[in-house]
Amino acid sequence: MTSVWDLAAQSEIPFPDSPEKIPAWIGDVDVAPAKCALDLALHDRIAKKRNIPLYKLLDLPKPKPLATAFTISISSPEEMAQIARENAQYPVIKLKLGTQDDVARVAAVRAARPNARIYVDANAAWNPDEAIQHVKALEPYHLDMIEQPTAKDDIEGMGYVQAHTEIPIVADETVRTLADVEALAKAGVKGINLKLMKIGGLIPALKMLRRGRELGQKIMLGCMSETALGVTAMANLTAYADWIDLDAPLLIKNNPFDGLKYDQQANIHLPDRSGIGVTRHNS
């Protein structure tokens, strides 16, 4: 089978030999996951040719061990509390919300795990007024953050919610471009969740991360339902993260890659390899 590199080598445009040259080589790819795939492959190629890990190629500090959130999908309060109890090794829990039973869900999980750090993700389920009502009802449960309470296009509404609580509001679906980071900061939103597959790879992620930090925003590094390839790439950026939600390899059964590792406290650790740091299983 002809590899993508064999095909690309036939192009008149030479392979990029530094990250700065990657955007010009990729061109105007407007499908974020496809752009991300090219971005990661090229970063991996350059770093391996230099025999250095990805974070060194990007001139980033060595990633620090941080505990990933463990995601519990929306279900009944009792079922979510039981899952939280069964996964007591994870000190950070992320709860999916979005219906009338949300306060009961959080209350049940907090009772089951009184010392856990809890993030909640409303997945854009509320309008701004509903969001404020939910936030006020959830404040007694000592949440670390509330993710995407309002519609993805309602930046003003998200800022309105943030103005009514000290709990950091973190934008997820809303954050796709550098302009979104600027607009969210202007609206007063305290945090952004960056995902490589959502925004198109490491090049835009680093620009958004650095700009968000300049604007005083907290940074969450997240992932989609994906393999260890993209999650390990994102783990190279954790030196600048406030929160991480990089649990996808724990939640899927068909992961073909060996990459980042999780210790007994759910801290993530990069493998000692060049490039992104992944290999295929049994290779």
List the helices and strands and how they pair.
Layout: H1 4-9, H2 22-26, H3 32-50, H4 54-57, E1 70-72, H5 77-86, E2 92-96, H6 102-112, E3 117-121, H7 128-138, E4 145-147, H8 155-162, E5 169-171, H9 178-187, E6 191-194, H10 196-199, H11 202-214, E7 218-221, H12 228-235, E8 243-244, H13 248-251, E9 257-258, E10 261-262, E11 268-269, E12 279-280
Helix pairs in contact: 5-6, 7-8, 9-11
Describe the structure concisely.
The chain has 283 residues and is of the alpha/beta class. The protein contains 13 helices and 12 strands.
Labels describing this entry:
283 residues, alpha/beta, TIM Barrel, eight-stranded parallel sheet, two-stranded antiparallel ribbon, 13 helices, 12 strands
Structural class: alpha/beta
Overall mean pLDDT: 94
Q: Please state the overall shape, judged from the principal axes of the Cα atoms.
A: globular
Number of strands: 12
CATH class, anyone? Alpha Beta
Measured distance between first and last alpha carbons = 17 Å
CATH topology: TIM Barrel
Estimate the helix proportion, in percent.
25-40%
Radius of gyration: 19 Å
Secondary-structure element string = HHHHEHEHEHEHEHEHHEHEHEEEE
The residue ranges in which pLDDT falls below 50 over 5 or more consecutive positions are none
**Widest beta sheet: strand line-up:** 1-2-3-4-5-6-7-8
Largest sheet: 8 strands, parallel
% residues in beta strands: 5-15%
CATH homologous superfamily - what is it?
Enolase-like C-terminal domain
Number of helices, counting only DSSP H or I runs of 4 residues or more = 13
CATH architecture: Alpha-Beta Barrel
Number of domains: 1
